Amino acid sequence: MMTSRQPRPKRYPKNPQPQEWLASDRSQEYIADYKPFNMVDGEGIRCSLYVSGCLFNCPGCYNKAAQNFHYGKPYSQELEDQIIEDMRHSYVQGLTLLGGEPFLNTQVCLRLVRRIRAEFGHEKDIWSWTGYTWDELAKESIDKLRLLSYLDILVDGRFMEDLKDLTLQFRGSSNQRIIDVQKSLKQNQVVIWDKLIR
Questions:
Q1: Domain count, the chain
Q2: Could you tell me the pTM of the whole model?
């Protein structure tokens, strides 16, 4: 006797309340990976730091291992110095923060972006991906807002498996946005990156 298969229920990422998840409570200051001189994590040639730990648990996450806050190895002065040296190359456009969740690893990310601004000013740009939306970050802890203030570009929002679209520029699902952070902060509203293709 044939039985009809029930469709699998849709799974969704977790949705935190404002300031429910704090880097001070969660981060172990671990790094999942560091990839210098790549061309997939934003515009131009970039140095990409993948921090460890994420609580959004997005179904279909492309970097599931990095959701673990103890994955990889501790952030170190040696790694930081290597990132700065790699970024000195004239062909490197900037730094990208990914994960894991950069905004749950503000101890590491703030230390690095502050040094980049001290060493390079705004000669190098800083991108970050996050599962938080812009509106959620506006209600978040001071450390998250400080990290946001150093960024040039933010790709915001959880990865949504049912909105997955491999044709999108620098995004995995159509709900995510590429935001010009500095213009958005000045205008007090979301301003989409002016080089957005699709």
A1: 1
A2: 0.93
